[in-house]
Amino acid sequence: MTDRGLRRLLGVLAEGANCLAVPLEVFFPEPCASTADALLVCSRCYVVEECAEYMGLVEGHVSPTRMHGVAAGLTASQRREARAAQAVA
């Protein structure tokens, strides 16, 4: 992705992401705590695809064991599974 593309993506997220109005703790709950509230916020967000694109860029440089929290409407384990499936395809 180009620098310009990344800036556009970050701008879209900054302007329209529902999570910006929600406390960060909702998306990074304590271990074994519910992620339902975060998933609900994501389910109503119109930039969830852009969020998924951004998370793919960020998490592409992170060990799967360090992925945590809810982003792009997915839990960390769901994102790990999706990433593993993409690697196989």
Write a structural description.
The chain is mainly α. Helix content is 53%, strand content 0%. α1 (3-16) crosses α3. It starts with a helix and ends with a helix. The model has no long low-confidence stretch (mean pLDDT 85).
Number of domains: 1
Poorly predicted regions are: none
Largest sheet: none
Percentage of residues in DSSP E strands: under 5%
What is the N-to-C succession of helices and strands?
A: HHHH
Question: Structural class, from secondary structure content?
Answer: mainly alpha
Helix % is 40-55%
Number of distinct helices: 4
Morphology: globular
**What is Rg?**
13 Å
Comma- or semicolon-separated keywords:
about 90 residues, mainly alpha, globular
Summary of the model, kept short:
The chain has about 90 residues and is mainly α. About 55% of the residues lie in helices and about 0% in strands.
